[in-house]
Amino acid sequence: MTAPGLAADAAVAWQRRSRDAAAPPAGRPLGPDHARAAALTGEHPGRAAAAPATIVLLQPPVGMFDTITRNIPLGLLAVARYLHPRYRVVIIDQRFADWRARLDAVLADPAAVVCAGFTVLTGTQIRFAVATARELRRRAPSIPIVFGGIHPTLLPEQTLAEPAVDYVVVGDGELAFRDLVEALAERRDPAALSGIAYRDAGGTPVVTPRREAFDVRAAPRLPYHLLDLPRYLGRSAQNHGEAFLVEGGRGCVHHCTFCFNSGFHRHTWRPFTVAAILDQITHLNRHHGVRGFFVVDDSFFIDRRRALDFAQALVDAGLGIEWCAEANLSDIQRLRDAEWRLLERSGLSWLSVGVESGSPRILKRLRKNVRIPQLLEFNRRIARFDIRVRYNFMTGYIWDDDASVGETIDLCLKLTAGTQRIMVQPLYISTPLPGTEYLGDAERHGFETPTTLAAWSEFDPFHIAGRLPWLGRRRALFEMLMYTSFFIDAKPAYHANDSPYGRVIRWLGRLYRPLARWRFRHRCSWLFFEKYYFRLAEWRLRRRYRAHHVR
Ligand code: B12
Ligand code: SF4
């Protein structure tokens, strides 16, 4: 039998290990019989006496966002919760300069490594993940390489066309990856497992049936000690001082056509319990001094009762922390003033609300259930509370015309007028992403969907415009709106850090705001120097990557 999904060298190594399977080497996890024997002899069950086998998990850089934030690699930590302590789990974050030394240390004993796993979003992360996977394959051909996360889940076959990828974990990684690791460690053929993809003996990708969604209520606490936590404290991309990621729920019941949720979570939502979210927050606050949290849950307010119970629990716990969350307007506009006051008291300092366009016609196309009059009413109400709001907008939609762009510009300026607390997310150019209905719309309008993993690596909002045929000569307009929108409100003040460079940015941002708003309103691309600010940021980022030895 040939090992599925293993590239040639790795397959040879797998077969060699399979032959030796009867006597697992010291340091390897034990099969059930050995585990029983180990329990009898008083050894730690499931582990040999020597060092446990290693699973190495890699977080590649994300792209431009690395200039302002380093969120914890939550996806990797989530899968690690079922591996540790049975295995030695090493999480390597390539956004930090020491990643290569840490990888070298792991590779000093490649035979101890059961597999290497990468987390991969669509966009820049793919480039770094593939480059590192190829290097790993060259240096340690016996180590099976696994890709997981949103992009490989949505396009498993295409991901497997990359020779350096042996397996894809499809969907929630917790149990599927645990089973795959066990199979690899015990030299079993993983072909029978659900929730994975591999290449068969002939090299054809095989995607096994998807697993049932992971029951998040059963999830044990994350093994935070696997990370060097102080590195992740501080500024975040959420326009907020500190916004440490804590999971609050998975999926979303809404049907927005551009969102990964329909392909990945299939319109379902799985909430963590209030107790579980609070437990993570309390632990992080008490033991690691974290004071600001971002509750990752695309539908946090869909169950109003749970959201308010969470707020009450925070008030009762008296931790004095701040938190922020994402919200759908239709869910939060029902909240009463007393409920907003409770949320305010609980430390809710930020809300991120998806609006997406100022045009009712476009909103209908996107199946976004936002009504502009209700949005304006909400905006007036929320101003009474000490809660900041960031509205998310995009432009460059297939159906955007002069009128709809004008409606979006007007709405952004109206919502943010005369306040430091209300902001819009930069107006990124809408990107057709895998697994979305919008990608189908885009194809019907002449968009060429990438056919390789590598081609998807160019899909980030800063570099997508050239690929969207419907933008035509208006590309410059949409790029101008994207870059200028960074400066039309108080964003620079929130994003800039306390370094001398950050202080200059903050000061320049305040000075420039009226002019940026004027440019934005009048769609003026003349003397468009904002773009160079981002070119400079990109240049600084490239230098940093080079210094970190990430290609
Ligand atoms: C935090 C976050 C970020 C962070 C970085 C996240 C990271 N992983 O590095 C920052 C702020 C930097 C960021 C940036 C961007 N993001 Co973002 N972000 C998120 C957010 C809010 C939470 C991610 C998270 O931690 N989820 C919780 C964890 C537990 O889920 P998970 O990562 O999916 O992991 C599970 C599985 O996927 C799997 N898994 C994941 N990794 C691995 C690895 C292995 C080995 C295995 C086996 C399994 C596995 O197992 C995990 C547990 O079940 C999501 C929204 C969401 N609901 O997920 C958007 C989201 C991921 N972002 C998205 C986007 C579009 C962006 C941006 C392009 C935004 C923008 N407009 O500029 C940029 C990326 C820029 C670029 N491409 O160059 C999209 C991604 C769509 C896609 N096709 O990839 C999402 C889904 C938002 C959305 N609704 O569309 N983002
Ligand atoms: S409400 Fe937000 S998370 Fe839900 S489908 Fe729409 S865009 Fe996606």
CATH homologous superfamily descriptor of the largest domain: Aldolase class I
Q: Give the C-level CATH assignment of the largest domain.
A: Alpha Beta
CATH architecture of the largest domain: Alpha-Beta Barrel
- The coarse silhouette is globular
**Distance from first to last alpha carbon:** 37 Å
CATH topology of the largest domain: TIM Barrel
Please state the average pLDDT score: 88
The low-confidence runs, each spanning 5 or more residues with pLDDT under 50, are 1-49
Strand order of the largest sheet: 2-1-3-4-5-6-7
Tell me the domain tally: 2
Biggest sheet, open or closed, and with what strands and sense?
7 strands, mixed
Number of helices: 22
- Structural class label: alpha/beta
Characterization of the model:
The longest helix has 23 residues, at 500-522. With 551 residues, this protein is of the alpha/beta class. The chain contains 22 helices and 16 strands. It folds into two domains: 3-171 and 173-207, 3-Layer(aba) Sandwich (Rossmann fold); 218-549, TIM Barrel (Alpha-Beta Barrel). The site of iron/sulfur cluster has 8 residues, from loops.
